[in-house]
Design brief:
This protein is an alpha/beta fold. It has helices spanning 15-27, 47-54, 66-79, 96-110, 125-136, 154-163, 241-254, 279-295, 298-306, 308-317, 323-335, 366-369, 382-399, and strands spanning 6-10, 31-38, 59-64, 114-116, 141-143, 179-182, 187-190, 220-227, 230-234, 237-238, 259-265, 271-277, 341-348, 351-358. The protein folds into three domains: 6-66 and 91-163, Rossmann fold (3-Layer(aba) Sandwich), CATH 3.40.50; 179-296 and 339-358, Argininosuccinate synthetase, chain A, domain 2, CATH 3.90.1260.10; 366-399, no CATH class.
Amino acid sequence: MSDINKVVLAYSGGLDTSVIVRWLQETYQCEVVTFTADLGQGEEVEPARAKAEALGVKEIYIEDLREEFVSDYVFPMFRANTIYEGEYLLGTSIARPLIAKRLVEIAEETGADAISHGATGKGNDQVRFELGAYALNPAVQVIAPWREWDLTSRETLLAYCDTHKIPVEQKRGKKSPYSMDANLLHISYEGAVLEDPWAEPEEDMWRWSVSPEAAPDRAEEIILGYQNGDPVSINGQSMSPATLLAELNAIGGRHGIGRLDIVENRYVGMKSRGCYETPGGTIMLKAHRALESITLDREVAHFKDSLIAKYADLVYNGYWWSPERLMMQAAINESQAVVNGEVRLKLYKGSVAVTGRRSDQSLFDEAIATFEDDAGAYDQKDAEGFIKLNALRLRTAAKKGRSLR
């Protein structure tokens, strides 16, 4: 990559990416453009500007992408009721395609020759960033320092800072016990004691939620309003996507909702133990499925459910911009035209219970479903022929001696 003159770096302002700025400048003799995204991680992103300026960066992008993140990435994913390996709500995974998109766009805006990121060669994020970038710009060049340099630990990074006069706040302080990633959908924890799958997470690790044992002794009921499969209001109050998710995080967090401790299978082949807090997402998943239960046709609902594992794999593995994900999304979005209405939920000590659901598009017919007199709405004698027709193949096999007994 001797033709590299300018690189756009996904920049957090932390130790790793600060080292990467200087490493790119010296290794490639290039200009560095930094891009810092506010996805609702709960920390100020503006300080990254001063840090980048101190490293000689002239073009600095700091962008508030919270609304775009929730409306164009989180909500479409939740229309599919997406969970990876039956548990993970994909909080880290779903943020990467947006970052990849902006890296490519900023590279085009600034005339940069390449993009760069701080993901390691062991994790999933390198795959997600780069698959997204290549899908959006097949000619893009990617520089992944962790796959090139010989800086293999925090101590070697700090030594590099000393040698190259890189200002790092509290660089000799206590090592952070966990590797964390946060955005409006979740916060994740890896490393330290969590590297032992048998070790219980320390209570003071959790940042967004109280423990279920310490949650209020009185349940709280909320009503979540939906339009076209997306939540739009809480207790009748309309909110923007980002504001609504932030409010659900606060409500769920105070009731100990959304904690998760799992061992997942990374795309690169290894197993990884992680803990997650996704209070708002946990509430949204429960509510969305409840509303779909009365608005979706049975076969549409079952077909949609058959897509969950595949859709989740695509998001987790970095194929958000793939043609198959876009095709699936179009079908899922079509199904959501009737998913309008309200869901009432009870939140109590880590649990979310649906206590009611209603919709003008509801397919639930009380006249048919009732255990009381249905006034001729359903002829129970019709069930006999239905059962016999469905039993025909079973009876035929049994007559041929193929009984399962």
